[in-house]
Design a protein that fits this description.
This protein has 1 helix and 6 strands, in the order αββββββ. The protein has 85 residues and is mainly beta. It has a 6-stranded antiparallel sheet with strand order 1-2-6-5-4-3, with no helix packed on it. The chain is globular, with a radius of gyration of 13 Å.
Length: 85
């Protein structure tokens, strides 16, 4: 299966500068994540998940997971803030 981000990483020589995860935010309504390491918080106002070197916290209103797999997830709702810790 073709993976856009994997192709970019494979074609770049200096992959040390690329993060171990990918976020795609579509108009503050959908957030697609590749490379998560598990959920830590799941509520309608906050969804947090682990990444290799920290944690991502997504805050907003009416948040829910519409897709969840071993390393990808899709969050939908009114996304107000995304922070990395």
């Amino acid at each position: 299966m073709f993976n856009f981000f994997d192709e970019i990483k494979n074609n770049l020589k200096k992959s040390d500068f690329l993060p171990s995860f990918n976020l795609i935010n579509l108009s503050g309504k959908i957030l697609y994540v590749e490379g998560h390491c598990g959920l830590t918080i799941l509520s309608p106002s906050t969804i947090a998940f682990k990444i290799k070197k920290g944690r991502i916290v997504v805050e907003g209103e009416n948040l829910f997971l519409s897709e969840l797999s071993q390393n990808t997830l899709k969050i939908e709702g009114n996304i107000k803030k995304i922070e990395e810790f």
